[in-house]
Design a protein that fits this description.
Elements (H helix, E strand, L loop, with lengths): L5 H10 L5 E3 H11 L12 H10 L4 E3 L4 E4 L11
Helix pairs in contact: 2-3
Length: about 80
């Protein structure tokens, strides 16, 4: 099974949503359901990890106080968001 980094999995799931947003819990559940990311210990990704990763990559994600994660505005043409 193909595995992504957590922030890549988050970007994939969010990019497929019409609002480009989801709660940390929704992201965690969808990433687990689709098998996009696995922790080294095999446990499911927790909402707290999604929150931490969104904060670590402010150029990719916006996080509000309610726990809603949104994709940041896409980079200008020719830019690389990875």
């Amino acid at each position: 099974m193909y595995r992504l980094t957590l922030h890549e999995a988050m970007r994939l799931v969010l990019s497929e949503r019409p609002e480009r947003a989801a709660t940390t819990t929704e992201l965690s559940e969808e990433i687990e359901r689709r098998g996009l990311y696995a922790r080294k210990d095999g446990a499911a990704t927790r909402a707290q990890q999604i929150n931490a990763r969104a904060r670590k990559y402010p150029n990719l994600f916006e996080l509000d106080s309610s726990g809603l994660v949104r994709l940041s505005n896409p980079p200008a043409a020719g830019g690389n968001a990875a």
